[in-house]
């Protein structure tokens, strides 16, 4: 067990509200536009915001920091979360189309255990996340009716969208804690 001196001091870049990740004027998730009209645009807006939040929690860290595990025996790290979400995006495509998409990282848990402090692994993970998000987005874009049921489980598009938001939101909460463990940075 580490002692208190091993822990980074808590800090934030925000000056307006010190419990925020960034000042409102500097936060790319804030816009001057009104919130979107309609259920699907609202769901897509929330998904986009959580995806951006995950990337923000990883910004400015090197490969070692991104791969740093939280608390033994957990294998969770920021890089592991990114790799996990790559696999999750691939899984959703299987739910949508019934055409199984094989795991990218292999055996169950390899998304986390393979999250090693190597810049090439980091670059691959972020490129894969962007590619897999785009592929899932494109597949779902062909089904704008939120009540439409897809795949062998007949899951509604609405449920898939809400599940995606829930998955990113939950992991953004993990990312908050992981980032604070790495360098002490806190904020929403």
Automatic annotation (TrEMBL):
Composition skew (Basic and acidic residues), residue ranges: 1-12
Output the InterPro entries linked to this UniProt entry. DinB/YfiT-like, MST-like
Q: Per UniProt, what is one Pfam family of this protein?
A: MST
According to the UniProt record, where is the region Disordered?
Answer: 1-40
Its signal peptide is none
Protein name per the record: DinB family protein
Organism of this sequence: Streptomyces atriruber
């Amino acid at each position: 067990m580490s002692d208190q001196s091993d822990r980074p001091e808590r800090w934030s870049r925000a000056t307006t509200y010190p419990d925020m990740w960034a000042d409102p004027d500097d936060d790319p998730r804030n816009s001057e536009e009104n919130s979107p009209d309609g259920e699907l645009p609202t769901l897509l807006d929330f998904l986009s915001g959580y995806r951006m939040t995950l990337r923000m929690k990883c910004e400015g860290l090197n490969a070692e920091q991104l791969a740093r595990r939280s608390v033994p025996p957990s294998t969770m790290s920021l890089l592991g979360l990114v790799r996990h979400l790559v696999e999750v995006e691939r899984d959703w495509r299987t739910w949508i189309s019934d055409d199984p998409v094989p795991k990218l990282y292999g055996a169950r848990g390899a998304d986390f255990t393979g999250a090693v402090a190597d810049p090439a692994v980091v670059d691959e993970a972020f490129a894969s996340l962007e590619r897999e998000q785009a592929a899932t987005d494109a597949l779902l874009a062909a089904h704008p009716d939120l009540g439409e049921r897809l795949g062998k489980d007949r899951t509604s598009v609405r449920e898939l969208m809400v599940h995606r938001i829930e998955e990113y939101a939950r992991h953004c909460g993990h990312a908050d804690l992981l980032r604070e463990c790495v360098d002490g940075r806190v904020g929403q």
